[in-house]
Amino acid sequence: MTRSETLFQAAQLVMPGGVNSPVRACRAVGTYPRFLSEGRGSHVIDVDGNEYIDLICSWGPLILGHCHQAVEEAVLEAVRHGLSFGAPTEIEVKMAELVTKMTGTEMVRMVNSGTEAVMSALRLARGATGRSKIIKFAGCYHGHSDSMLVKAGSGALTGGAPDSAGVPAEMAADTLTAKYNDAASVRSLLEANPGQVAAVIVEPVAANMGVVPPQPGFLEALRGLCDAYGALLIFDEVITGFRLSAGGAQRHYGVHADLVTYGKIIGGGMPVGAYAGSRKLMEQVSPLGAVYQAGTLSGNPVAMAAGLAQLEILENNPDIYTALERKGKRLQEGLQEIFRKAKVPAQVNRAGSILTVFFSKTPVTGYDQARACDLERFAKWYRGLLEHGIYAAPSQFEAMFLSAAHQEEDIDAILVAAEEVAKTL
Ligand code: HOZ
Questions:
Q1: Active-site pick, 32, 54, 136, 141
Q2: Across residues 384-398, what is the average pLDDT?
Q3: pTM
Q4: In the chain, at which end, N or C, are there fewer CB atoms within 10 A of the end residue's CB?
């Protein structure tokens, strides 16, 4: 038995499913989780000493790869001065200045996770509009707050529980569900609920039903509908923020959202989230406004140090994004060619440096097509990659992430492994 298997056995006795977050239990792909002990650049090493090319990158935030020197040094320096104060610190101001500059927002509030960011942004949207209903999209995932666990993606979809038990019907009643990449479904809901919809929340690139980019005009249509019906547009940029471009999906697609939520990506690997928007909206948050939201660990100095170090590098090195696009495109095209040659029906969806291989004959442009994919083939693909030293997301409904630390040789190695695995599918 490997050390990972032994640890997993012990973990299952004291933690639900042996994990602290469901997808990583690897139940959907018929294996046990590898317990990781180290990350270096684009690689991770497990407790048995196996080394893998990492295509998870902590589910997105490690855009610079593991243990980037500048991030590591910033964290160590911060640690020497104190782990937490629950009081304002200078670095919070620097962080807020940089985040607002990069994202074209005016004010930001730091929180501790994407879940918290979304929960707070929804409260703000409701407080600012005086309306209760929220439109989300089937298969989009916005964290695990009660009202967002309705047709949710990510781990909820992977585990077969897109509508979680434990969410009272009243909590979910104000969540209306539209179809991603289908603006007409949003219009119908807005028309059926006149003056009642506070916000439309969307992952500008859906990445929790697997990666599904927006069809041309979809995000622009949402902007227009929100304006026409007096609802706020919220971009959940937990995955796309600072990754698709330095200014996230807003800049990349040229569509402005009223509120934007960020998650782990803003902390460079530390637990952070944030929500941001115009001064007019954000001034409604306590202590200035009537929308209450608080947290002792919000703006934690160690987390801010990691986040600021990473964001400064991203802001000052636009070539990182050019390289991420090049590597992402090469990986996508290489995989497409491999599946074509192996006669395996597959779609390789991509937006910049995030990708998903869908085992589907037809293009995947939304939730229904993603759900219809061949999940058994995906599980086989996942296990094959792992055996060949590639550490990818253990679910059809998640993304693979590249980082600045991934070299062309890593892409070569992934494609060599993929070719071998594709022959077995
Ligand atoms: N399901 C989340 C990613 N979309 C987090 C997975 C994890 O950390 O296990």
A1: 141
A2: 97
A3: 0.97
A4: N
